[in-house]
Design a protein that fits this description.
The complex is a heterodimer of chains A (429) and B (489).
Chain A lengths: L1 H20 L6 E10 L6 E10 L2 E6 L9 E4 L4 E4 L1 E6 L44 H6 L3 E6 L12 E9 L13 E5 L12 H16 L12 H10 L4 E6 L2 H13 L3 E6 L7 H6 L4 E3 L18 H8 L3 E3 L12 H10 L4 H7 L2 H6 L17 E4 L10 E6 L2 E2 L5 H18 L1
Parallel strand pairs in A: 1-4, 1-5, 6-7, 9-10, 10-11, 11-12, 12-13
Antiparallel strand pairs in A: 1-2, 2-3, 5-14, 7-8, 8-9, 14-15, 15-16
Helix pairs in contact in A: 3-4, 8-9
Chain B lengths: L2 H6 L61 E9 L5 E10 L2 E6 L9 E4 L4 E4 L1 E6 L38 H7 L2 E6 L7 E9 L17 E5 L2 H9 L8 H30 L12 H10 L4 E6 L2 H14 L3 E6 L7 H6 L3 E4 L17 H7 L5 E3 L10 H14 L6 H4 L5 H7 L16 E4 L10 E6 L2 E5 L22
Parallel strand pairs in B: 1-4, 1-5, 6-7, 9-10, 10-11, 11-12, 12-13
Antiparallel strand pairs in B: 1-2, 2-3, 5-14, 7-8, 8-9, 14-15, 15-16
Helix pairs in contact in B: 4-5, 4-6, 8-9
The chains are: A alpha/beta (429), B alpha/beta (489).
């Protein structure tokens, strides 16, 4: 394996040099002999080939022929998957969580509650910094895209309507937003009581009032909840817009879905510790759930029913599931696949877990046509793994985003190499 | 999220602040001959004058339950001493390991656990937990982990905050954790005494207390004390140099206290009359316990240079640091830690939540472990992480393998068993499968370092305290009893 690996890295480096020198006309890459999890109709190919042309997947099959000038990667049976989803994060919006000057995902206008407004127009994605060290640290672990969720962690910040978010690619480009993924984020339940009137009832009351202001601007009066820009922003979600509700308690999940339905929104449940309780309703209404797969303790009275087979029970009931973290989701995004593995240990089928990191989140955020699967025409976000990609002992050997190999380095690999040298010298003494 | 309390501590801790104790700079001359034992390896000898801690006024009431002799047969056994025995048996008699090896005979009436194709390890040990002191649910009324009213609270004991009904204990047990050290949080320079518990159901913490385990003292470097006091309360310390001055002043006070007690004892011994009894001081009792080698320092510290400063300080005052906890930059001073016999209790991959965690790398554990005579440990500091110490070890080992280190299972199991036992001073009792030790054992459904690994059976002192093959019993925690947690309406 090691030998094969060094060959493939040498090939890649050659490819990188070509790209860097600008002399490259070859924009074809053939990844040969991989165990390909397509997460698509083809299922899993044990000795599969994937041909990448420019930024797209051109062919998937066995025994594919490399076009002239193509870079050929011998996978030697290693696992190839679509690039993984990083969860709901603030990657590129947050460098160091406790340093306020580096944290840009929340709106925190200091105002007393009676003067507070809802600001659905807040959009932190414009502050996305693709040059953040968190970006390469995360993508060398196989994470190629994430959804920037305003107000993370825990959708905090100064408002329970935390703003708008969107998916971004992590290949380092400035214009990183993935079209069609825009969503509104709302934080319901006890986590947000202190900023929203102290109860779910207050939260729903404020949301209802905001909707009324959109529908009947004259109703706003002088204590309007929304600014004119806010009315426009919220208005865009009242016509089949995607709204992600961070909510845990079973009863509150039902209220969130009901609110979304009566206002013609497409609800997504995030967190959803007790979603398993209402799994049948969620399946019927086609409401996806982005679960915190490690949640198994009653962290508060909204999460009394938290359990490790939440994802398994939801999937069994027919709910589309994906994964997120609620504890430092940004810096820990690389841990997300481990949580999917834990869900498998607690009853979730392996393929469903893999879909929860790839095709499902792409579908949930309106990107299913271009991302999340290994299929002809999809953007070539790919990861070649040393083994089972949910396993903690497995590492990403090579990542491609939009058809280009990612340099497998980060600030952390630099630190590693510097001090590994020191340890080796010490051992040699 | 609860991690806020311990790792990030108290950005929001706004309780009114008591006036910090008068620490002054002391008339350090009293340190006299008893200090300056720097340079020697290993724990220093107790200081002169001798000092004996008062007998534990809150003694353990834990009694190992009766259990039949047990033979765990045919498993892949990781002993915790660096050995792997395939197809081996573990024989337990009277709650203790009797023998480990092939083809052991089951005594009459023995319970036999078939471990074929399963893995057998010592019970896992977490040296850094806040279960019980920050229990679930995380309610204001149960938040008892940080006495954040003064930067030196060596007088408080974590055990007095332990709520045995924390449902997290059961979850940790299901993850194979049989022993855990409960620490105060890291708001303070000196946070208070820790307590070592056996992970058994009990109504009182005394019923969980590990018999005879030495006490620990939680101390904290870096950002947390600065944030809570300097930024939060506008009192000392507000800088790392202020942190150092705070610890040193405390040690000087303890030295004076020890001297006063010694003088009193000397006068009594000489038969002097009307000798004034020195006033007992809980804070200084504990600090003197450290300086006399009876209480083990467990120090929260992230940065390489801060750990190096603390090692020098420990030599200045003649004590030993048992372990640095968190040690996100431990890999930068792996040699220094090993040379000084200081363990490093680390995460596999946490980083970036504050500046002092910015240089965290996933190779930390493997690099620390690679130094000769090192002592690397996986710890959790988390009610979630404590459920998966085995996976975290597996993750860290994979990084070692990528660097070219051999990280076989029989080695990395030490990160979560025998090395933590050493830090807690209970290595002669538990942490490995050796004859005579407590039969704290986990039978896993496969390689314990896999994400799919589950603890099938957990034994504490030979008693099966968790068995996944049985229908789930009623919750051990009174809080969870009768809650609608198990079924949909």
């Amino acid at each position: 394996m090691k030998f094969a690996c060094s060959i493939c890295i040498a090939t890649l480096l050659a490819a990188l040099e070509l790209v860097a020198s600008g002399s490259a006309v070859a924009t074809d890459t053939l990844i040969r002999g991989a165990k390909v999890y397509t997460i698509a109709a083809e299922g899993t190919l044990d000795n599969g080939d994937v041909l990448v042309h420019d930024d797209k997947i051109a062919a998937v099959g066995t025994g594919l022929t490399a076009p002239a000038g193509a870079t050929v990667i011998d996978a030697n049976g290693r696992v190839l998957t679509p690039g993984f989803f990083g969860g709901l994060t603030a990657i590129g919006l947050e460098e160091v969580q406790l340093e306020d000057s580096t944290v840009e995902e929340s709106l925190d206008i200091k105002a007393p509650f009676h003067e507070a407004q809802l600001r659905p127009e807040f959009d932190p994605t414009v502050a996305f910094n693709p040059r953040s060290t968190v970006v390469p640290v995360t993508r060398v672990e196989g994470v190629t895209w994430t959804v920037l969720a305003p107000g993370t962690p825990v959708f905090g910040g100064g408002n329970f309507v935390t703003g708008q978010g969107a998916a971004v690619t992590l290949d380092g480009r400035f214009d990183a937003e993935l079209a069609g993924s825009r969503s509104l984020f709302v934080n319901l339940g006890a986590d947000a009581f202190s900023i929203s009137g102290g109860s779910l009832a207050a939260q729903l009351m404020l949301l209802d009032q905001a909707v009324r202001e959109v529908r009947t601007p004259a109703s706003a009066g002088k204590h309007a909840l929304l600014t004119p820009a806010g009315r426009e922003a919220l208005g865009r979600y009242l016509n089949d817009g995607r709204v992600v509700f961070h909510v845990d308690r079973a009863a509150d999940i039902r209220q969130a879905v009901a609110f979304a339905k009566r206002n013609h929104m497409k609800p997504v449940i995030a967190g959803g510790s007790e979603a398993w309780v209402v799994a049948a309703d969620l399946a019927r209404d086609k409401v996806p759930v982005i679960v915190v797969a490690l949640a198994d303790l009653a962290g508060d009275f909204d999460r009394i029913g938290a359990r490790l087979d939440n994802a398994a029970l939801l999937q069994k009931a027919g709910v589309t599931i994906s994964f997120m973290l609620d504890d430092e989701p940004t810096h820990n995004a690389r841990r997300l696949r481990q949580t999917a593995g834990v869900a498998v240990a607690h009853g979730l089928p392996f393929d469903a877990a893999l879909a929860g990191l790839t095709a499902n989140p792409a579908d949930i955020f309106g990107l299913g046509a271009t991302r999340g699967r290994i299929a002809r025409g999809q953007t070539a976000d790919l990861v070649l793994w040393t083994g089972d990609p949910l396993e903690v002992s497995t590492l990403a050997d090579q990542v491609w985003i939009a058809g280009r190999p990612v340099e497998m380095r980060s600030r952390q690999t630099e630190l590693r190499d510097r001090y590994l040298e020191r340890v080796k010298q010490h051992q040699a003494r | 999220m609860k991690r806020m309390f311990c790792v990030m501590v108290c950005a929001a801790l706004v309780a009114a602040c008591a006036t910090p104790p008068q620490q002054g700079d002391g008339s350090g001359s009293s340190a006299g001959k008893s200090v300056a034992r720097g340079g020697k390896k290993g724990p220093p000898q107790p200081l002169s004058p001798p000092w004996t801690l008062p007998a534990d006024p809150y003694p353990s009431t834990y009694k190992p339950p009766q259990s039949p002799p047990t033979l765990i047969r045919g498993g892949i056994v990781l002993t915790g001493t660096g050995e792997r025995l395939d197809g081996a048996d573990v024989l337990i008699v009277d709650g203790r390991i009797r023998a480990v090896g092939k083809n052991l005979e089951a005594p009459a009436g023995a319970r036999v656990i078939d471990a074929q194709n399963r893995w057998v390890t010592p019970g896992l040990i977490d040296v850094h937990s806040h279960l019980g002191v920050y229990p679930s649910p995380a309610m204001n009324g149960l938040s008892d982990g940080n006495e954040a009213t003064s930067p030196v609270t060596a007088n408080v004991w974590a055990e007095h905050s332990v709520h045995p009904q924390d449902p997290g204990f059961q979850r940790a047990l299901e993850g194979g954790v049989t022993t855990l050290e409960i620490l105060p949080g890291s708001a303070n320079l000196v946070g208070g005494r820790s307590v070592v518990l056996k992970n058994v159901p009990a109504v009182t913490y005394q019923g969980m207390k590990f018999p005879g385990a030495p006490y620990g003292l939680k101390m904290a470097c870096g950002e947390n004390p600065k944030r809570v006091y300097g930024q939060g309360k506008k009192t000392a310390p507000s800088t790392q140099m202020g942190n150092m001055a705070g610890y040193r002043a405390a040690w000087i006070e303890a030295q004076e206290y020890m001297r006063d007690v010694q003088e009193y004892q000397d006068k009594l011994a000489r038969g002097e009359k009307d000798v004034k009894v020195p006033k007992r001081d809980l804070k200084l009792d504990t600090l003197a316990g450290v300086l006399s080698g009876q209480i083990r320092v467990q120090m929260h510290c992230y940065r390489a240079e801060e750990m190096a400063e603390v090692i020098d300080m420990s030599k200045e005052f003649g004590y030993h640091v048992a372990a640095f906890h968190h040690g996100v930059e431990a890999y930068k001073i792996a040699d220094l830690l090993a040379e000084n016999g200081v363990c490093a209790a680390l995460w596999a991959d946490w980083w970036g939540f504050k500046m002092e965690a910015y240089d965290g790398i996933q190779e930390n554990l493997a690099l620390v472990d690679a130094a000769p005579n090192s002592c690397a440990i996986v710890h959790s500091d988390s009610e979630e992480g404590i459920q998966r110490l085995n996976q975290e070890a597996g993750k860290a080992a994979a990084r070692g393998v990528r660097m070219g280190f051999a990280e076989p299972p029989e080695h990395i199991i030490k990160w979560v068993t025998s090395n933590p036992a050493k830090v807690l001073g209970i290595e002669n009792q538990t942490g490995s499968l050796e004859p005579g030790k407590m039969a704290d054992v986990v039978v896993w459904n496969g390689n314990p370092f896999s994400v799919y690994a589950l603890a099938d059976q957990v034994l504490i002192d030979g008693a099966v305290v968790f068995d996944r093959s049985q229908p789930p019993p009623k919750p051990r925690s009174d809080f969870m009893l009768g809650q609608p947690s198990g079924s949909a309406p």
